[in-house]
Amino acid sequence: MPTKPKRIRRNLKTSLKIQVVCEGDTEYSYLYSILKGLSNVEVYSINGGGYGKFSNHIEKNSSLYSIFLVVVDLDKAQNRDSECKLLNRLIKDLDLLDRRNCIFLNGPDIEYWIACCIGNPNDTLTELSKLGYVKGNTVNTFLNNQHGSIDIAKQHVNSTRIYYSKPNVDCKYGLYKEFLNERQSTLGNLLPYIEELNKS
Prior knowledge:
Blueprint lengths: L17 E5 L2 H11 L5 E5 L5 H11 L5 E7 L1 H5 L1 H17 L4 E6 L2 H8 L7 H6 L8 H7 L4 H7 L7 E2 L8 E2 L8 E2 L4 H10 L1
Parallel strand pairs: 1-2, 1-3, 3-4
Antiparallel strand pairs: 4-7, 5-6
C-alpha cells in the first residue's frame, strides 16, 4: 500500500516588511547605520521635498510594505500653515492605511537630534558646523568623532513636549498644537517601536 506523502511543515510566522521613509542624505545615512542589521527593514530617502512627496510615495508603494515609518523634519510645518495642513494629512493618511504606521518628527530638523546625540541640545547647524558637521552622508563619521550616541541623545532630547505622540504600536496618535514650535525629536523611540512591531 502506498504511503501518504509527508506534509512539509511551514513556518507560518511572517515577517513584517517595514519601510522607513526619510527626507535626505543625512537622515538616510544615519538611519541606515542604526537599522542595517534588521532584515525586514528598508530605509528609503525621498531626496527632499515636502510632506506631500511622502504621501505620494506611500500611496504608490502601499501594496509593497506592511508598515511605513516616516522620519521627517518639522521646520516646514513650523513656518507655514499650509505645510502644517499637509503634515496633518500625511499623519492621518498613515493612520488610515494602518494604525501601526508612525511618524518620527525632528523639530526644527535632524540637526536637533544630532546635537542631542553629542550632548549639546542647544546647538544649531551653525554650532555643529564649527565642530566639523556637514549635512549629508558624513553624519556617522561626525557622530563617531564626537562620541555621540542614541543613549546620550535620550538624556538631552525633548521627547515629551512634542507635536505628535504615539507611545506604542496599538494606540491612537495625538496631536498637540501647543508644542508645534518646540525643539523636539521622537527619533529615540524608533528602535523600540520597530522591536515592538517585530514582536506583534
